[in-house]
Design a protein that fits this description.
mainly alpha; Growth Hormone, Chain: A; 0% strand; globular
């Protein structure tokens, strides 16, 4: 394996380290399984605490989500900063420890019938898992070849979706057959497995770093010249503060960041409210509405295939622009004409954006700034989410329908699609 660059100077041309990618997918599965467990077992928890919290359970359950969402406005960028300053695998170990601690508190709340352990545990798991995407994606960005990134990010996305689907199906069945305690112990075991895997990732990364130090990057460079250049580049990077690196981000990055953050926000709204919207506005049975809404996530099983298509075409900016138009057209059809066709097209746009997001980010920022750059996008998305869900709650309370809110989503998609056109025009003009 030959490396063609000096660290911090340009993109490395190296073959993808597939074992690393596979271990990251395995680490994600346990953590996302833990995050999805609490909402999946919502009714069982409510019944368990019915004696002391029958009238206030819903309030505290949603309060935990609100506290987590507000905290993520600052926490997402902080995690991204840590990923750039330190090893991504070390950050991932810390996050997984929080998942294990949170899941332990969930079990302790059942064992001792203490609600506040449940409340704190839910917050810890939500914060850790929501920011794991930053550390794992930054990790993959470092160890995946440029022409194979979309494929590996697609596999990563598919693994997360599979874990969500499994917990939706498996956990209620386990509770019904073996009881709530068995389900909690299973999830705690999976969380501990994720922690073990995160340590494996750390040792694999250390091994790769040691191997890279022993390699000669190019025949025209002597080993002495290589190390001299590496030290010089690292010295220059250390003189530039993290804040200065953020200020040096190009206008194209900020346009791209707004597009991605806005798309993530729309995805959050659809994930949380689409079944309710379909059943209330289109007068469809709740079960059928949920099945229609699942079309958005169904594509996730084929994200790896979309990633292969992205890597083959190497038309990232056109791909992102098409995903915006697909979301816009799908939202229009969803709200005005047909919920099934509209949802299917919206889901296509969402999943196309998933596989393009990180490969494109690497074209706007240096590799050593990926964590901060992605953390900023996530923080902005969380800020938008906090404000948006507050507005939606007020609007739905006044109108008693989700139609106005989903029409607002259509306008919002229109805005970031226009910005996507501006970004595309800027890039094409700069490339002339």
């Amino acid at each position: 394996m030959n490396t063609k660059t000096v660290k911090g100077n340009s993109i490395e041309e190296q073959p993808t380290n597939y074992p690393i990618s596979i271990w990251i997918c395995l680490a994600n599965i346990g953590s996302f399984y833990a995050m999805c467990e609490s909402p999946t077992l919502h009714d069982y928890w409510k019944e368990f605490f019915v004696k002391d919290y029958s009238s206030s359970f819903e309030f505290y359950f949603n309060l935990a989500s609100s506290i987590s969402m507000i905290s993520l406005i600052f926490f997402s960028f902080f995690i991204g900063l840590l990923c750039d300053l330190y090893s991504n695998s070390i950050v991932l170990i810390g996050q997984t420890i929080f998942v294990v601690l949170g899941q332990f508190l969930m079990y302790a709340s059942f064992y001792w019938n203490f609600f506040w352990f449940f409340f704190v545990g839910r917050i810890l798991i939500y914060l850790a898992v929501q920011t794991i995407s930053t550390s794992t994606k930054t990790y993959l960005n470092q160890h995946v070849a440029e022409k194979e990134k979309a494929f590996m990010f697609g596999i990563n996305s598919s693994s997360i979706l599979i874990s969500k689907c499994v917990v939706l199906i498996a956990q209620p069945a386990i509770v019904q057959k073996y009881g709530l305690e068995s389900a909690l112990l299973l999830t705690f075991g999976l969380a501990c497995t994720s922690l073990v895997i995160s340590f494996i990732l750390y040792f694999l990364e250390e091994k790769m770093n040691n191997q890279s130090l022993e390699q000669i990057p190019l025949e025209k460079f002597s080993t002495q010249e290589y190390y001299s250049k590496s030290l010089q580049v690292q010295s220059q990077e250390s003189q530039q503060s993290q804040w200065d690196q953020v200020k040096s981000f190009s206008i194209n990055y900020w346009l791209f960041g707004f597009i991605i953050a806005s798309s993530l926000l729309v995805t959050n709204v659809i994930d949380n409210l689409l079944p309710a919207y379909i059943s209330s506005y289109w007068k469809i049975d709740t079960i059928d509405a949920t099945r229609i809404a699942s079309l958005c996530t169904f594509y996730g099983f084929f994200n790896w295939l979309m990633g292969m298509g992205y890597d083959w075409l190497q038309k990232g900016h056109e791909w992102l622009l098409f995903s915006s138009f697909a979301s816009l057209i799908g939202q229009l059809i969803l709200t005005q004409y047909d919920p099934v066709i509209g949802t299917a097209i919206v889901g296509l746009g969402y999943n196309m954006r998933v596989v393009a997001m990180l490969p494109l980010l690497g074209k706007f920022v240096k590799k050593e700034s990926t964590g901060k750059a992605f953390g900023l996008i996530r923080s902005f998305k969380d800020l938008q989410s906090t404000i948006t869900f507050l507005i939606i709650g007020i609007v739905v309370n006044e109108t008693h329908t989700y139609q106005t809110s989903f029409q607002g989503v259509f306008i919002f998609i229109t805005v970031y699609t226009i910005i996507n056109l501006i970004l595309y025009s800027n890039i094409k003009f700069q490339n002339k």
